[in-house]
Every structure is written in structure tokens, then in C-alpha cells.
């Protein structure tokens, strides 16, 4: 009997010690003094007031620290309803703090605030000029990053005001690169989109498979790291994506300038430093796409009416039998080139640029067949406005030609004169060496 009691005592003693340790840790972590001290240190580092409603221990499914009601008071506040940090216990027993899992729930992350705070932290951590040794290794220590990141209804608030809410589960390999990622967009323009990213062996290469707008985007993505000892420490990203059957308006929501099913082949790439901000990474991205759209309808613009009024009308829509061309992106800027569209008696070609603020600029030529024997009338139009409100007008030279054509031969002469005026204008530019 004594032996049984002794064994029970030896069994309960570690449990009681652990329970007492957890109780003491809970009292310390949840104390007001600890919370205020942590908030003060974070506020000093970020240069903005940091507040936390409560700090405690999360015991399920794995023990860790939880912070509730975390906020950073900037011009656009950043808020996180709950953050859970679960340590890697093997490292903790060895006296090292390493994060196994980081969980973020119901957060709002404004792009402008993130950029501002990142700049402040970077400036605070920067070494004084000339103080760093040339041989200093400034590579990122991936061991400090979590091995799993869980996002539960986390919203990204873009600089222009658009909000996108996601659920995501990312798992990382020991070298810090993603091993597997699953993402679902549950709010915002691309709601319903899902994507998976799977690493291919030990290489820094992944297979992307995304479902969006009733279609699919998939293909390989590879990252090439700089060679050891290389003078230029640049990371190179390459990818090749195939788009099949995606509804175009799902990619531009809530705007709806174009509807139809998209088929495309895309190559993308980027070169950037080993340490780079999110904004700099976006600006470094380059892509080139060849596309076709079946069942296309252009909303907000009636090209046939624009021809008949020589660009003086707006609104309406244009149904197209075929639409094809090329898209090049350089950061947030978009260039549409070699556009070819046709619909019955109408055919159009041209080039259009889309700026980061969604403004349109470019030129299109619309040819209309007027009956079996009347021939083709072509009208050159300048494209302006925005994606939400596209506008087409005549250039000044084409407008002058249209006026002359109307005086000479009403009707057909309007389009012919506009075409002649535009060509004459381009010829004069070439003659005097002016850039187009």
C-alpha cells in the first residue's frame, strides 16, 4: 500500500509542479504591469501607441500566449482581435524562443499603416553610416520565423480603400520557405477565390493552382537565390501560368468594364534584393500575357456609336465575336497592346495603357463596313477616362479632318476625313522628328 502511495506521489508531483508553474506564469503574464510594459516597449519601437486589452495563456490545442484586442493607433488604425503565439517546446527547453505557430484572428491590416510601421522599424534597426563591417552577414534568420501561420478572417485594406478578407494556412520548411499554403478569399472583390501552393521537393520551386471566376489559373513558380559570395545579392523569380475559362469581370470586380471567358498564357518575373518591402516587391514584378476572350462584351462603351458620332458619345456596350491581344504589367502599371476585336461589321485595333490609379490612355482605330459596296470607313479614336468610365474622343487633328470631311461629303466623309486628319498629323510628326 505504501509503495502504491509513493508511486502515486511521484506521478502527481511533476503534474502539481507544472500546474503551479503555469498558474504563476498566468498571473505574471496577465498582470496589468506586464501588459503596460510590453505595450510601452512596442510603442517606442513602432513610434505609434500600442494597446492590448488582455494578455493570457492559451492552453488549447497547444499551450501558448494569447493577446486580445491588440491595436496600433495610426492615421488608419491597425487592429487584431486575437493573436496566439505557440512556442517550439524543444527549442524553449534549450533556452531559445522559437515560434511554432502564429495565429491571427479577425484583423484589419491597412496597407499604408503597414508600410509606415515597416519604415520606422527599418530605420530603428539600421546601423549608423560606416559602423557596419563589410563582412557582416545581413541575411534573414529564418529560424526566427514561425513554422505555421494561420490567418482567420484577416482583412487587407489597400491604399485606395479596397478591402480583401482571407483565411489562410501556411506551413514552412526548416529553411524558412513555404512548404504548403492554402488560401481562401472570403470577402472583397475576389470573394470565392481559392488557391494552393505546394513546394516541389527541396527546391525553391512551387506549383500554383487557383480557382477564380469559374475557371483556373495554374503553373510553376521558381525562385533563384544568389550564389554564395556573389557581389550582386539579387533574388530572381520566374513563373509560367496558364489561365483557362476565367470570367474576366471576376478579376476586375467591383468594376465590370469587360465580361467574357479568358484564356491566357503568362510569363512573370522579378529581380529584387534579398531584403525587400512588400511595396518594392510589387513594383519589381513584371509579366507578359497573350490572351483571348470568348463571348466578350465591352461595357461602358459603344464603339459602333462612337464611330457614327466620331467619338462624341459615351456609354452603352459593344458585343464582340473575338477579342485578343497582349498585356504587359510593370509593377502596378498595365499596357494593353496589339488589341484585335471584331463584331459583325465592326473591327478594332489599338493600344491602351492603364495607370496605377486606373486611368486609361491610348488609341484605337475602329473600322466599320458600310454595306456590301460602300467600303470600309475607319475612325481613329483617343481612349481616356477610367476603367469604370471609359471615354473615346477624336484627336484634334482627326477632329479637324472630320469637320472638313463632313462639309465635303456628309455621312461617309466624316469618318474618312477623321482618318485622313489623323494620318496627316502623324506624318507631320515624323517629318519634324517629333516623338509619338
List keywords for this structure.
single chain; 436 residues; alpha+beta; 21-stranded mixed beta sheet; 44% strand; disordered C terminus
Question: Can you tell me about this structure?
Answer:
It comes from Hydrogenophaga intermedia. This is AsmA domain-containing protein. InterPro entries: AsmA (IPR007844), AsmA-related (IPR052894). Residues 1-108 form the AsmA domain. 26% of the residues lie in helices and 44% in strands. It has a 21-stranded mixed β-sheet that branches. Helix 8 crosses helix 9 (412-431). Among the domains are: 22-121 and 144-161, no CATH class; 300-436, no CATH class. With 436 residues, it is α+β, with helices and mostly antiparallel strands.
How would you briefly describe this protein structure?
By secondary structure, the chain is of the alpha+beta class.
Secondary structure tally, helices: 9
State the low-pLDDT regions, or none: 129-137, 396-436
Q: State the end-to-end CA separation.
A: 101 Å
Based on secondary structure, the structural category is alpha+beta
Strand content: 35-45%
Please report the total strand number as a whole number. Answer: 21
Write down the Rg: 30 Å
Specify the biggest β-sheet.
21 strands, mixed
Query: How much is the average pLDDT?
Result: 77
From the spread of the alpha carbons, the general shape counts as elongated
Order of helices and strands: HHEEEEHEHEEEEEEEHEHEHEEEEEEEHH
Helix share bin? 25-40%
Amino acid at each position: 500500500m505504501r509503495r502504491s502511495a509513493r508511486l502515486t506521489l511521484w506521478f502527481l508531483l511533476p503534474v502539481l509542479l507544472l500546474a503551479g508553474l503555469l498558474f504563476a506564469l498566468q498571473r505574471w503574464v496577465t498582470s496589468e504591469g506586464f501588459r503596460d510594459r510590453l505595450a510601452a516597449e512596442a510603442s517606442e519601437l513602432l513610434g505609434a501607441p500600442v494597446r492590448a486589452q488582455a494578455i493570457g495563456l492559451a492552453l488549447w490545442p497547444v499551450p501558448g500566449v494569447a493577446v486580445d484586442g491588440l491595436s496600433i493607433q495610426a492615421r488608419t488604425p491597425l487592429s487584431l482581435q486575437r493573436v496566439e503565439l505557440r512556442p517550439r517546446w524543444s527549442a524553449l527547453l534549450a533556452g531559445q524562443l522559437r515560434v511554432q505557430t502564429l495565429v491571427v484572428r479577425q484583423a484589419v491590416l491597412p496597407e499604408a499603416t503597414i508600410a509606415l510601421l515597416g519604415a520606422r522599424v527599418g530605420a530603428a534597426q539600421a546601423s549608423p553610416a560606416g559602423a557596419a563591417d563589410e563582412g557582416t552577414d545581413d541575411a534573414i534568420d529564418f529560424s526566427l520565423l514561425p513554422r505555421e501561420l494561420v490567418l482567420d478572417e484577416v482583412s487587407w485594406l489597400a491604399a485606395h480603400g479596397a478591402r480583401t478578407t482571407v483565411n489562410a494556412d501556411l506551413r514552412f520548411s526548416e529553411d524558412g520557405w513555404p512548404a504548403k499554403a492554402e488560401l481562401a478569399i472570403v470577402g472583397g472583390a475576389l470573394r470565392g477565390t481559392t488557391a494552393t501552393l505546394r513546394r516541389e521537393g527541396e527546391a525553391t520551386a512551387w506549383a500554383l493552382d487557383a480557382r477564380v471566376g469559374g475557371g483556373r489559373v495554374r503553373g510553376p513558380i521558381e525562385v533563384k537565390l544568389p550564389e554564395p559570395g556573389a557581389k550582386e545579392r539579387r533574388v530572381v523569380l520566374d513563373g509560367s501560368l496558364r489561365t483557362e475559362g476565367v470570367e474576366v469581370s471576376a478579376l476586375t470586380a467591383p468594376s465590370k468594364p469587360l465580361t467574357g471567358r479568358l484564356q491566357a498564357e503568362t510569363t512573370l518575373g522579378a529581380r529584387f534584393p534579398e531584403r525587400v518591402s512588400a511595396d518594392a516587391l510589387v513594383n519589381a514584378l513584371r509579366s507578359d500575357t497573350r490572351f483571348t476572350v470568348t463571348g466578350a462584351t465591352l461595357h461602358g462603351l459603344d464603339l459602333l456609336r462612337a464611330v457614327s458620332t466620331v467619338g462624341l458619345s459615351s456609354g452603352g456596350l459593344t458585343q464582340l465575336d473575338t477579342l485578343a491581344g497582349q498585356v504587359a504589367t510593370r509593377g502596378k502599371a498595365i499596357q494593353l497592346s496589339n488589341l484585335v476585336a471584331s463584331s459583325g461589321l465592326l473591327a478594332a485595333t489599338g493600344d491602351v495603357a492603364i495607370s496605377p490609379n486606373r486611368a486609361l490612355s491610348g488609341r484605337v482605330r475602329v473600322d466599320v463596313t458600310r454595306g456590301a459596296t460602300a467600303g470600309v470607313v475607319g475612325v481613329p479614336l483617343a481612349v481616356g477616362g477610367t476603367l469604370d468610365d471609359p471615354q473615346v474622343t477624336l484627336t484634334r487633328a482627326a477632329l479637324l479632318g472630320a469637320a472638313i470631311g463632313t462639309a465635303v461629303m456628309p455621312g461617309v466623309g466624316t469618318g474618312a476625313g477623321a482618318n485622313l486628319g489623323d494620318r496627316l498629323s502623324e506624318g507631320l510628326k515624323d517629318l519634324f522628328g517629333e516623338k509619338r
